[in-house]
Design goal:
alpha/beta, eight-stranded mixed beta sheet, five-stranded parallel beta sheet, binds 3-acetylpyridine adenine dinucleotide
């Protein structure tokens, strides 16, 4: 059976598949696209449902001004295909959103994947039937499809967090969320603009909007550490050097801590306080000048020892004081409530400098909380500010938000919302007990966004594909992690996090940005290479911890 006769029309906009598929893939970002390609190559029948009107995942939705990747482009690319790696030419060291979207189009066309992807289709429910050992997947466009396996490739940052600030519906001007930005151009020229939120998205949006708006007010709840990242054009020589060493680069990335050869080469493999103050200062300055995350990819105890972390945090605060002319603004922009690196660092291409412009101002919500949004703008405890445009850069219900919004029902009607009521529970971040044949790409409990996520995605896609082939070769069709193996994995992930400073920050890694969300450190922090080894060992031990059967 081929893809074209998989479905029949029941009514306009409503489709039902007559035969069960092997796999339904949800999401057409980095994960879903490669997953679909790998499944097709392995001979499985599958379809991809994508909520957006185009492929690209996070790079489709996050088209806000200034959106740009903060991982080197040559690393933040698919590595499974040497042809793709060689044929595509990145123009800048950190690619901008529109270039990454063009890359997606290139890949999808190059691999002839468009025919397998159904756009404008959001999966709303997925129920498992024990007797038939099939999932029934439903979408908001009325599709009903049964499949043996479901692969969630929905990303870690795909459900926008719009805070419940009273009065938002009353605002008379334009309002946008960075994670759900319209396709149509948004003009800031001559306008009074507010940006609420100062994470990676806010920092990038503020920098760009400050160049266009008549007036910009930034509402900051927590100051974040931003590291400089000038965005040089990629030179042919650098590109060629990478391509000449492609296999070696891939191998380093796959077995490294953070998923990139660049960051692996920067690691110092010694505690910070082993160096004297002069040496430390020299290293910090060199790494500040290098840009990107070089400063924190350094001594091996920065994320485990507060004494080691403090001088690095203070180094950045001193830089902020140097750059920002107004001392009160500089003080408000200086993070003091978390060790550096325990919240996701921001990429800075002129953020701190923006506050020296006369039309840019900062409102520190710690001393002046927002009380409500009114028709003309924002009212805080101290003043009412008038705006034409409100930009919410308030982040995401990360890692679990998208999964928990789908009505998942596993064995005996077990709901995912119940199974994960106290926080996500997975085995390897790739499956969860009670939900047979449901796979997660970069799920909670895996390294996912702690490094170059494309490397983690590729590893999961390949692991899942190999697992499906293993089942097929052994005439098996059902896989589920054992509860004790999952409990042990969750304990392992928690213990790794507890041995670091990371749980100290109110980060989205901890679910702390969403009111009422369980406070659990969600990703695996042991490093991309170590995690890969652990996954491989489990496979070599006969998929230890997984129960497999034929139904
Ligand atoms: O989201 P965030 P993001 N009132 O959660 C504030 C990736 N990414 O979209 O810190 C007022 O980091 C919130 O305050 P607080 C990257 O992994 C990558 O910026 O919770 N403020 C915070 O300041 C990144 O980490 C790239 O106190 C409120 C901000 O909103 C992740 O996506 C670019 C609020 C949200 O920051 C998420 O980044 C962009 C409220 N009610 C994103 N609620 C690159 O590759 C929240 N905030 C460069």
């Amino acid at each position: 059976m081929n893809q074209t006769d998989l479905h029949q029309s029941a009514a306009p906009g409503f489709r039902t598949w007559s035969e069960p598929l092997d796999v339904v893939v949800v999401g057409a970002g980095f994960a879903g696209i490669y997953m679909q390609y790998a499944l097709r190559e392995a001979g499985f029948q599958s379809v991809v449902f994508e909520a957006g009107s185009d492929v690209g995942g996070t790079w489709y939705w996050n088209r806000y001004p200034g959106a740009r990747c903060d991982v080197d482009s040559l690393d933040y690319s698919y590595k499974f295909s040497e042809e793709i790696q060689r044929e595509w030419r990145w123009s800048e060291r950190y690619a901008a959103q529109d270039e990454i979207l063009r890359y997606f189009h290139f890949v999808v066309d190059r691999l002839d994947l468009r025919r397998d992807i159904q756009l404008n289709t959001r999966v709303t429910a997925s129920h498992y039937d024990e007797a038939s050992n099939l999932w029934t997947v439903r979408t908001d466009t009325g599709d009903v499809v049964r499949a043996r396996f479901v692969v969630m490739a929905t990303g870690n940052l795909s459900t926008a967090n719009v805070p419940a600030i009273p009065g938002r519906e009353r605002f008379g001007g334009e309002q946008y969320h960075t994670g759900n930005w319209p396709k149509e151009p948004v003009s800031f020229e001559g306008k009074r603009v507010a940006v609420i939120g100062t994470g990676s998205s806010g920092v990038q949006a503020v920098t760009e909007i400050s160049r266009r708006a008549a007036q910009l007010t930034v509402f900051q709840r927590t100051a974040n550490f931003c590291l400089p990242a000038d965005v040089p054009t990629l030179r042919d020589k650098e590109r060629q050097n990478y391509l000449d060493n492609l296999e070696q680069m891939r191998e380093i990335a796959r077995h490294s801590q953070y998923g990139t050869p660049y960051s692996q080469a920067l690691l110092l493999h010694r505690p910070a306080l082993e160096d004297d103050v002069e040496t430390r200062n020299r290293i910090m300055q060199e790494r500040w000048d290098m840009g990107g995350a070089a400063l924190v990819r350094s001594w091996n105890d920065l994320l485990t020892n507060e004494e080691a972390n403090r001088p690095v945090a203070e180094f950045v605060r001193a830089k902020i004081r140097e750059i920002v002319k107004d001392p009160a603004t500089a003080a408000a922009l200086s993070p003091t409530d978390h060790p550096i690196g325990t919240k996701r660092l921001c990429l800075d291409t002129g953020y701190y400098e923006a506050f020296n412009k006369p039309h840019v101002s900062l409102v520190d919500l710690k001393s002046e909380p927002i009380e409500e949004i009114v028709e003309t703008g924002v009212r805080t405890s101290k003043a009412t500010y008038a705006f034409d445009v409100l930009v919410f850069a308030t982040g995401f219900d990360a890692m679990t938000g998208t999964l928990l919004r789908i009505d998942f029902q596993g064995r005996q009607g077990l709901r995912l919302t119940e199974a994960w009521a106290a926080g996500p529970r997975t085995y390897l971040g790739v499956m969860t007990n009670g939900f047979p044949n449901l796979f997660l790409v970069t799920g909670p409990g895996s390294p996912s966004i702690t490094g170059c996520v494309v490397v983690s995605i590729e590893q999961h896609v390949e692991w899942i594909t190999d697992c499906l082939i293993h089942l097929r070769n052994n005439r098996l069709n059902r896989i589920e992690p054992a509860l004790d193996a999952q409990d042990a994995w969750v304990d392992h992930v928690n213990a790794l996090a507890a041995s670091t400073l990371l749980p100290k920050a109110n980060s989205w890694y901890m679910g702390a940005n969403i009111p009422g969300k369980p406070r659990v450190f969600m990703p695996y922090i042991g490093g991309i290479g170590t995690y890969r080894r652990e996954c491989n060992e489990i496979v070599e031990a006969g998929y230890k911890g997984f129960n497999m059967s034929a139904v």
